[in-house]
Amino acid sequence: MAEAAIELVGINKSFGAVHANKDIDLTVPAGTIHGIIGENGAGKSTLMSILYGFYQADSGEIHVGGRRTVINAPSDAIACGIGMVHQHFMLVHNFTVLENVILGAEGEPLLKTSVAKARSELERLERDYGLEVDPDAIIEELPVGLQQRVEILKALFRGADILILDEPTGVLTPAEADHLFRILRQLKDEGKTVVLITHKLREIMAVTDNVSVMRQGSLVATRKTAETTVEELAELMVGRRVLLRVEKGEAKPGDFLLSVRNLTVKDSRGVTMVDDVSFDVRAGEIVGIAGVAGNGQSELLETIAGIRKAESGEVTLDGRPVDLTGGADPGDLRRRGLAHVPEDRHTMGLVLPFEENENSILGYHGDPAYLKGPFLDVDAIRSDARDKIEKYDIRPADCRLRTANFSGGNQQKIVLAREMERDPKVLIVGQPTRGVDVGAIEFIHKRLIDMRDQGKAVLLVSVELDEIRALADRILVMFDGRVVGEPPREASEGEIGLLMAGVETREAAE
Amino acid sequence: MSGPYARLPGWADYGLIPIINLLVAFAVAGLVVLLVGENPLRAAVILVEGAFVGGQNIAYTLYYATSFIFTGLAVAVAFHCRLFNIGGEGQAYVGGLGVALVCLSFDALFPWWINFPLAILGAAAFGALWALIPAYLQARRGSHVVITTIMFNFIAASLMVYLLVDVLKPPGSMAPQTRTFLEGGQLPKLNWLIEAFGLSVRSAPFNISFLLALLAAFGVWVLIWRTRLGYEIRTQGHSARAARYAGIGQARIIIVAMTVSGALAGMMALNPVMGDQHRLQLDFVTGAGFVGIAVALMGRSHPAGIVPAAVLFGMLYQGGAELAFEMPNISRDMIVIIQGLVILFAGALENMFRPYLQTVFASLRPRSAGLAEDRAGGA
Amino acid sequence: MDAFNTVILVLDSTIRLSVPLLFAALAGLYSERSGVFDIGLEGKMLAGAFAAASAAAVTGSAWLGLGVAMIVSIFFALVHGFASITHRGNQIVSGVAINFIAAGATVILGQAWFRQGGRTPSLGADARFGAIELPFAEALRGLPVLGPIYAELISGHSLLVYIAFFMVPFTWWVLFRTRFGLRLRAVGENPAAVDTAGISVAWLRYRAVICTGVLTGFAGAYLAIAQNAGFVKDMTAGRGFIALAALIFAKWRPLPVMVACLLFGFLDAFAIRLGGTPLPIVGRVPVQLMQALPYILTVVLLAGFIGRAIPPRAGGEPYVKER
To answer: Chains with ≥3 Cβ pairs under 8 A against B?
Structure first.
C-alpha cells in the first residue's frame, strides 16, 4: 500500500448518550479515492467532522501524512492541507463566489490585492479542473450544483491535498454527479487524496479505489473496490441483524382509504424532494416504504399529514380529496381519521418540557372529551393518560412526569398510544422504532399489526429494512424522491438493497 | 429559553438558580454602593426597613407591586409563546387612556363599582390594541416583535403627549393632564386591610386594583395551564414544529398571545390613574413596563414567581425612596441599576452558573442530574 | 432671503442633531452585521456621555474625556458580548439590562462624585470640542447662496462632527474593502461558514462589539462635551433607539445609514424650528407627530410596505454547532 495520507486510530465520540463513533481505525492511502459508505446516522459525517476539527474526538489519534497531528479547529485541518465540502454548504448566501472562496484565506488585511490574486488563481483552477463558475455571481442566485463547485474551489484555493466530500451528490443530477466524479479522478491523478462519504453504492463502485463501511458508529470493514461487490457492501452496510419475527396472518385488504397521485414536493430551496409519487393504501394492509434516509420519505409523510405544502398532486383520504397544495390543516386531517406518528418525536411528535398527560392530547387538544368549555378538563386528560399508560405499559407510570424524563422507547409509546387509541382510519408512521430499545420494538410492531388487523390502512416509513420486511404487506422503495420499485414479498434483502441504492434504476435507464 | 445544558432537579432549576442569580445581582449592586462611599449592608437594612416596617411603608410597597404584577404577567404571557413583548411601557401608557376616557365620561354618572369594570375593559382594550399592530406584523409579515414594540413605546409617548397637551387638557389649565376625576372615577383604598393587622397607614395609594392584580395572576395561571388556548400558546412557545404538527395556527396564536399580553400591560394603568392620581398625567407609567421584564425573568414566567418578584421590586421602589432620604449619595436611581443587574444576571446570564451547579449536583447525586435521569425508568 | 436663512439654520441644526444618531447607528451596524443584535446602544451612549463629561471635568481635557468615554462604552459592549457570545444569552435581554444599568449608574455616580443632582460640572472651552472654522469661511460668507452654505453648514462644527461624517465612508471601506469587513459580514450571515473556514466566530464577534463600543463612546462624548457642556440625567433621551431605527431603515448599510440619520435629524430640527406654527397646505402639524415619525417610518418599513428590511441572517441567534 502507498503511504498513508490519513490515519485515524481509536477514534471515539459521543453526543450525550449517543455513541456516534466507536473505536474507529481508518487508513486512507495517499493519492487514492476512498469511499466511506453507511446508512444515515452510521457516524460517517461525525468521523469526518472530527478529522476536519469541527468536533473534537473524546479519544483517539489523528495522523496526517505520517505525522501525529492534533486538530482542534478547522484552521488546524486547513493548515494540514485538509479541505472539506460539507453536506450543508458552508457558504455565505449573499456573497459573491469570489468572496466566499477567499473567506478565511484572504492573505492580507486589504481585500484589493487578495481579490486580484484569487481571481487569477480561480481562473487557473477553473481551467485545470473544468470547474467553471462566474466569480462575481451571488451564491443564492446559483443552482445548487454550482454552489457545490464553489465549495470545492474553496478547498482547492486553500491548497488542500486531502479533500473530504460529505454526500456530495445528494443535490446533483446524474449528469452533474458524473462531472463531479471526473473532477475527483482528475484530482487523484494530480496526487491528491479524496475521501467520499456517501450512502449510494453506485458511486462507490464508480469512482473509489477503496471503501470502508460504517454501521451504527463502528467501522465494520474496508475493502478494495475492485475486489468487492455491490451485494457484499449492501450486506455489510445493513448488517445481518437478528431476524425480527412478527406473528401475523395474511392481510385482507379492503377499501382504498389513502390514495396518492402524482405527488410532487419541493423544499425551501426549490429542490424536488418527492417526485411524482403515486400509490394506494387499503384498509387492513401495511404498505412499507423502504429507502435510505434522505430520499424523500420524510417529506412524503409530512406532506400527507398536512404539515408540508405539496407542489402538485392529489391525495384522497377515505374517498374524499384533500387539498395539500394550499397547505392543509393537520387538525382537520386528524378529525377526518388520519393519525400520524412523526419521524421526529423530539421536536414534532412531543413537546419535551410538557407533562406526559399534556403530550397525550397533542393535536387532539380540541376534542370535547378533554375540554369543559374553553378549559382543559384536567381530570379527564389525566385519567385518559393513565389508561393509555397502563394499556401501553409506559414506564414510569406517572402521567405528571416531564416527557423529557422518559426513555426513547417510552416516549415513542406515548406518541403511539395517542395516535392509535383514537380509532383512526389511516395511520401513517415514520421510523416507529428509531432510538427504541429491543423490548419496546417488539411491542410497537405488535401494535402495528393489530392496527392492520382492525382494518386500518397503515403507511409505514422506515430506514430499517428488516422492519419493513417483517411488517409490510407490500413494499415500495424510494430513491431520489421517486418510487423506484415494488419488489415482490419474496425478494431478498440484497435485491431490495440494490433498489434502495438506486442501482437497478440507473442500469435500467442507461 | 432553556440552554443546551442537561437538567437539574426542579427545585434547583426554579429555586436555587434564580436565588443565586439574584444574590449576584445584589452583590454587584452592593459594589456600586461601596463605590459611592456608603455601607452596602446598612443600605440593605434601610431598604428592607423602608419597605416593610410600618403599615405606611408596606402599603406603598404593595402599591408599587400592584403595577409590577400586571406588567410582569404581560411579559410572561408573551414569553410562554416565545415572544418578547418589550412594549409593556407603551401598552400601559395607552391603557391609561382607556381608563381616563371611561372615568371622564362616567365619573359623574356612576359610582366607582360600576366604572371600575368599565375602566378595566377600557384599559385592557387599549393596551391590547397597542400590542395588536406589532403582533399582526410579527404573525403576518415577519417583522420582529421586539423592534416594533420598542418603536410603539415611543409612538405611544408622542401620542399621549399630543393628546394631553392638545386634546384632553381642560381649557385654561397649564399642566398637561386631564381634569381630576370625580368620586365615581376614584378607586377605594385598601389601607384598611393593612390596618386590620394592627398597623397604621397615614395615607398611601394602596388600592383595590391590588386585588385585581392578584386575580389577574390567578387568571393567567388558569389561562396558561388550564385552558385550551394556554395549551396552544405553550406548545407554540416550546416548539413551533410541534404546534404545526398539532394543527395550531401560528399566526392566530401569536396574535392572541400578544393581545392578552397587551391587555394585561394596559390594566397596569388602573393602579396609578384610577387608584392614586385620579387623573391622566404625563409619564405616569414611570418604567413599570420595563420592570415587568425583570419581574417576569425572575419569576420564571409563572404567576407564583411573578407575585413575589413584583413585591420584591415594590420593596426596591419603596425602600429605595427611604434609602434616598437616609443616604444623600444614593438616589432612587439605585433601583434602576438593581433592576438592570437583575435582568442581566437572571435573564441574559441565567445559564452562567448552571454548568458549575450541574457539576456539583452530578458529583453529589449522579442520578439527580442530566442523562442519568433521562434513563430513569427504562423501557 | 429670510426663508433661505431659515432653511440654512434648520439644515445646520439637522447636522448637529444627526451626529449622535450617526455615531450610534454606525456603532450598531458593526455589532448587528456580525450577528449580535444590540438594543443597548442607548445605554452605552449614555454611559459614554457621562464618562466623557466626568473625565473632561476632572482633567480639563476634551481628548481625555473622549478616551474615557470610549473605554467605558467598550466595557459595556464587552458585558453584552460576554452575555450574548460567551454565554449565549438572550441578546435582547442583555441589551435591556445594559440600558438600565447605564441609566441608573450615571446618575448615582454623578451625584456621588459631583453633587449637582446627577449633573456633571459645566465644562469650560478647553474641556470641550469647540467649533472649527474652516479656511476662508468668513471671507466667503458674503457670496450669495454658496457663501452661507459653506460658512454655516459646512464650516463651524466641532471636530467630532467631521469625524462622524468621515466614519460613513470609512465604515463602508472597512466593511467592503478589508479582510475584517468581509469576515464580519460573513459571520453575521452564516457563522458556520466562518467557523469551517478556520476563523474563530467568538473572537470575530467580540471585535465587532468592541467597534460598537468605540463608536457609542464617540456618540456619548459628542452629546456631553461637544454639543453640550456637561452631562445631565438621561441626556440621550431615546437617541439610541432612533439610531436603531435609522439602522434598520437603512437596511444595515453605511451610506443609507447616513441618509436615514440626516432624515431623522431633519425631522427633529424641523419640529424644533417650527414649534406649533402652521405650515402651508397641511396646516398645523403636531410636534409630537414629527417626533414620532422616525419610529412610524421604521415600523412601516419593517412591515414590508415600502421595501423590506432583512436583518443579517444569523442576527440574534447565539452560534451553536449543530447537534
So the answer is: A, C
